[in-house]
Amino acid sequence: MPLDRIIDRAVRGERISEAEAVALMESHELLELGRAADAVRERKVPGDAVTFVVDRNINYTNICITGCDFCAFHRRQGAEGAYLLDRDEIFAKIEETIELGGTGIMMQGGLHPRLDIDYYCDLLAAIKERYQIHVHSFSPPEVSHIARRSRLPLDETLVRLREAGLDSLPGGGAEILVDRVRAEVSPKKIGADEWLAVMEAAHQCGLRSTATMMFGSVETRAERIEHMRRVRELQDRTGGFTAFIPWSFQPANTPMEATATASGLDYLTTLAVSRVYLDNVDNIQASWVTQGLKVAQVALSFGANDLGSTMIEENVVAAAGVTYRISRDELVRAIEAAGKRAVQRRHDYSLAAS
After folding, report:
1. Could you give the number of structural domains in the chain?
2. Is residue 351 part of a domain?
3. Residue 323 has pLDDT above 80, yes or no
4. CATH code of the domain covering residue 235
């Protein structure tokens, strides 16, 4: 089918196929694709509002048993630089976040060989006892690891975490949801089916989540669409994804350092196609952390309606040599400079008090 017909159908609200999405991904009609993605965004999220959240990434441990090739953050237990934050350190970070107007925290860490469900539930309960803050934490690989370490089924693990104070899950650890790719970049991490199983179980027990895609490593463009297809199929079943967040692989300081990653043009193409193809996900988030603020501003005309977090703290991407930082006021100015209206939100996409 000609590209213009695929684009016309998507703009009208018709669902496009996986093959049609691949054709869009492999086309060189960037501006036309951007206009289409913006039209779809306008239908899904009308108006000029661009949302963002003020929160902090608390990377509570870098000790990890998987050692993924794309990750510059992990350390083996006992290695130089390996750490596990104590509660007072975590509490201090939460208190600073609240003082800066933050409404949530995202705790993510390595797959620690000794931490089980009791550690996580006790930590969540202690946080909720002290602070009124949204806890958006623990990616599917972490949840799966907690379940295995604790000899519990996934659903029971998630219910216990929710009852202790977990509010929602980040979409980390997805990389590309194609096992050929995962076998190359993260062979010790859970497979695509298990990542999706964690998310489905989370949605079924009342926890919503985001979905991410780390692209620009060893995958093909067709495999990026396969990833999106699997997200779209799960969203059809559960409706539990609040947002889709594509971000580009950062190779510095990793065993894959020589790998070329996605260019700005490739990033914008992939972002636009995600908006067009993922017709059942309301929010598409631009990644200023990996692409920089200028490209993120352009992305607001390529289907994105959200700029993610101010990132009071972030250590995983920073370990790969990408250390963008931005204040709330700077993020607001960047959104307004792109001709949009900045609106602070919470992790569930409800609007935060101004």
Report:
1. 1
2. no
3. no
4. 3.20.20.70
